[in-house]
Amino acid sequence: MKLTKISAIRRKELRQAAFEVLQQEGMAGATLEKVAAHAGASKGIVLHYFRSKQELFEHAMREANLSLSEAVNARLKQATTPCERLEAIIEGNFEERFFRPSICHAWLSLCAEVPREPQLARIQKVIHARMRSNLMSALVHLLPRAECEAVTLAITALIDGLWLRAGLQSEGLTRDIALNQMREYLKYRIPTLNIRAAR
Amino acid sequence: MKLTKISAIRRKELRQAAFEVLQQEGMAGATLEKVAAHAGASKGIVLHYFRSKQELFEHAMREANLSLSEAVNARLKQATTPCERLEAIIEGNFEERFFRPSICHAWLSLCAEVPREPQLARIQKVIHARMRSNLMSALVHLLPRAECEAVTLAITALIDGLWLRAGLQSEGLTRDIALNQMREYLKYRIPTLNIRAAR
DNA sequence: TCAATTATTGACCGGCGGGACAATTAAAAA
DNA sequence: TTTTTAATTGTCCCGCCGGTCAATAATTGA
Q1: For chain B, how many structural domains are there in total?
Q2: What's the predicted TM-score (pTM) here?
Q3: Contact check, Cβ <8 Å, B160/A164
Q4: Is A161 inside a domain boundary?
Q5: pLDDT tens, residue by residue, B114-159
Q6: How many A×B Cβ pairs under 8 Å?
Q7: Quick check: is A106 in a domain?
Q8: Which of B34, B43, B158, B187 lies 20 to 30 Å (CA to CA) from residue A64?
């Protein structure tokens, strides 16, 4: 029982260390030694818990996504109306602790590997699927069926685009600006919506 | 006279080869040897024309941007009304030859390096500035001044988001879908606009 | 306490990639 | 032609990084 716990703890520590190193070093610079050092361990231990660098960052991506996912779900749990659910999804995706340049850098680095790493592509696919399903479940009550698909794509594209910008031009794109941007889009696109006003 | 030409030609060939290798191999995999081989030359020649790998990909990014930029400008030149200018910018950014998964991969790889490479950051900044200036010059005639800024950000975020998606989920996001997405956004956001209908 | 399992380390290896360089070839200038 | 300059190649070196391994320390279970 204790032994399983230690391994679980180490693995989690290493996943998180990996993601944190990724924020500052990028995928190429995020070497096993740096990750280990950042977690206060030796390089050997990393490969003791993860078969390869690939696998390590696979789990790092899952972990990061999980944490974002939980934030959204927590908000969703408190939402009752479709409108509130929409708000929950969007605000969850722009919480201060996530929508930060360094975090965006890390995601960028992961995304850049997706085309060449099927495992990462799979995770990416899951992330998009969940986002889509969340959005659809709210939009279906706010728009004619035929339009939901398109609006879902627009919202995800907007979110991704804003994240990308936040990653590129460090600072200058605050959470508030991004949130206003999203709210404004919804205000114009879904007239029947009464959401907290955009600016 | 001839010598300057040869050097100019080689440099262009190498920049393009670099960008093409980037499409399939990513930044880490785009080794000097592969770029050289792809251009039909030897590794030495690459470092003869470019001081370092960094500089090579710097120029590759400039080249890729230039080509996109020219496409937009060509369309802009034929546009007369603000509405047409808007259309020109958007359609230029989704021409078939640019809006392809492999090209998106390459841009993704470059963007992922931006946070750690000041040179790339500078280029990125220029790209955004031009895009912004283009959009503003059209929007100013279509919207109250106060709204232009926000709409500009939304449009760029949408474009970036759609490109990102195209890069992540290879195929499945065609140029037509992306263009419709943009047109729909404009239709709702700029009511006074009469643009070719979105689907 | 003792055996067995697990955690952890550090040393080591093989490979590779960026970059330097000297040598060779081609071209241009004189 | 001769000389100088540029183009091009192949080789070599160094450092780094992922990954293996054997050895050691710690923990657990009996």
Answers
A1: 1
A2: 0.94
A3: yes
A4: yes
A5: 999 999 999 999 999 999 999 999 999 999 999 999 999 999 999 9
A6: 124
A7: yes
A8: B158
